[in-house]
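Q: Give me the 3D complex with iron/sulfur cluster.
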Amino acid sequence: MTTAQPLDVTPSPLALLLLGRAADPASERGVDCPGDLPAPSDPDLVGRARAARERLGSRLFVLGHHYQRDEVIQFADVTGDSFKLAREAAARPEAEYIVFCGVHFMAESADILTNDSQQVILPDLAAGCSMADMATAEQVAEAWDVLTDAGVAGSTVPVTYMNSSADIKAFTGRHGGTVCTSSNARRALTWAFAQAGENGKVLFLPDQHLGRNTALRDLGMAPEDCVVYNPHRPGGGLTPEELRRAKMILWRGHCSVHGRFSLDSVTEVRARIPGVNVLVHPECRQEVVAAADHVGSTEHIIRLLDEAPAGSRWAVGTELNLVRRLAARYAPQGKEIVFLDRTVCFCSTMNRIDLPHLVWALESLADGKVVNRITVDPETAHFARVALDRMLALP
Ligand code: SF4
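A: Here is the predicted complex, encoded as C-alpha cells.
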C-alpha cells in the first residue's frame, strides 16, 4: 500500500498575487486597502460619491474603462479603452486628481502621459491585470539575452500591447520598439517589420493571441511563421534554430477573460440563435477569431453595434459588464445582443473597483488626503514615453 505524500509545491509569486495572498510592494498590487472602506450595504454610497465629487469640482477627473461595473461607471466623466482614457487624462491638465477606474497598467500609462502636477489614483491597488503580470521586466530581459545568444536580437524589434506594465513599455522604448493597441496592432507590426529590415523579426508582448491574430489575419503570415516564447522554460522552450526561422516571436501571455471563449461557444450560439452575428475581441484565441463574423477592439465593437440595423442579432465575445450594458442600451432599438459564452465571464481585477472603494478614494481626496497614488519612476516613464510616442507617430 502506498501512502500519499504531501505535495512539495511552492506557489509562484504570481500565483500568490492572483490569489490575493501576497504583497508586491514593487508594483503596489496585492495589498489591502490602507483606509476604512464604507460598508457595501451603506444605502447612501451614491449620495456620498456625488457629494465628494461636488466638493472636488474641476480638480477631479474620473476615468472609467468599458469593463467597469455599472455602479462605478455612472461616476465616470469619460469612458473608453485604456489608451483613449490615458489621452483624455493628458488633455485635462487642469485636473489635479485623475481617478482611474480601471487596472494598474492603465493608471501607470495615465501617469506617464499626464504632467507632473497631476496625481493619478487607483481606487483599489489590488486591481491588476493577469495578462500584464505574465511578462515581468526580469523575464523580458532574460528573453532578450536568449535572443542575443541566438544571434537574432539585432534584427528583432519588440512591440508591446498597451496591456503591459510601464517596465515593459520602457523595455520596448529602449530597444527601438513601440506600443500598440488592439486598434492599431496591424500598423504597429507593419512599422516594426519595416524597422527590423529583411529577415527581421518582432518580439510581441505579452498577448500571444493579439500577436498571432494580427500576424495571420492582417499580415498574411502562416502559423509556422510564429513561435511562442515560454518564460517559464529554459531558452523560452525554443531552440536557437526555431528562433532564427521565426518571423513572430510571441510571448506566452493571454487575457484570462477573452481566453475563455472557445470554438464550442461559437458553434453553440450559432445553433441557439439563427442568423446571429458573432463579434469578438482579437485577444480571443485564433480558432475563435477565425470562426467569428467580425473581430475588433472594444471601441470597434461598440461602434459596430451602434451602427447595426434594428432586428439584428449579436453574440459578443468580450467582458461581461460591457456586453450587458450594450445589450440594455440597444434593446429599445430592437437589437438583440447576448454574451458569447454560457458561463459568467467578468474580469475579476476590473471588478475590484467597486462603489465602496470609489467613495473612499473620493472622500479622502476631498478631505485633502491623497490615497493610492500610482507613480512611475522618471527613467522608466521616459523610455515608456519614447515607445508611446512612436505609437502616436505611426504612419
Ligand atoms: S480583461 Fe483581460 S487584459 Fe483586460 S484587464 Fe482583465 S485580464 Fe487584463
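A quick observation: The CA atoms of residues 96 and 117 lie 7 Å apart.
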